[in-house]
């Protein structure tokens, strides 16, 4: 028995040679915070909360568990932005510790809060591409 064709689904990307395409598709859709399966419905119901299922294709988005991966990648990326900034500022104008803290602490918090939902979407897209649930 064959499944009816879902025009929003990309289950046709299932061969071994399509895994790279499927991964890029999942990353792109997830980074836009859209459903990785169809790319049309919203994957998030709030800032970081995943919807239980897609409104468009009814893909069970809530079954994916991103756990600690999004914060890990967020810290990794933000650290690679903030630490060189701190070091460059320290070597060039040698500001006081208070000035360094007043600049880089809010910058770090804002960058983390800004990146986290998009990185969580990308992790969701990666899990979709690799068919990792639960
Ligand atoms: Zn969908």
TrEMBL record:
Residue spans crossing the bilayer: 72-89, 101-119
Region (Disordered): 1-20
Extent of Basic and acidic residues compositional bias: 1-11
Keyword Membrane attached: yes
Name of one Pfam family that matches: DUF983
UniProt keyword terms in alphabetical order: Membrane, Transmembrane, Transmembrane helix
Domain of life from the UniProt record: Bacteria
Protein name: Zinc-finger protein
């Amino acid at each position: 028995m064959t499944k009816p064709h879902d025009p929003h689904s990309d289950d046709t990307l299932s061969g071994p040679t399509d895994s790279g395409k499927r991964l890029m598709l999942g990353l792109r859709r997830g980074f836009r915070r859209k459903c990785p399966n169809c790319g049309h419905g919203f994957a998030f119901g709030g800032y970081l909360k995943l919807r239980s299922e897609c409104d468009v294709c009814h893909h069970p988005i809530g079954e994916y568990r991103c756990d600690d991966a999004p914060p890990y990648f967020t810290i990794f990326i933000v650290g690679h932005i903030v630490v060189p900034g701190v070091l460059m500022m320290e070597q060039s104008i040698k500001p006081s510790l208070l000035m360094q803290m007043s600049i880089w602490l809010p910058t770090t918090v804002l960058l983390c809060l800004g990146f986290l939902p998009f990185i969580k979407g990308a992790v969701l897209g990666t899990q979709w591409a690799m068919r990792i649930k639960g």
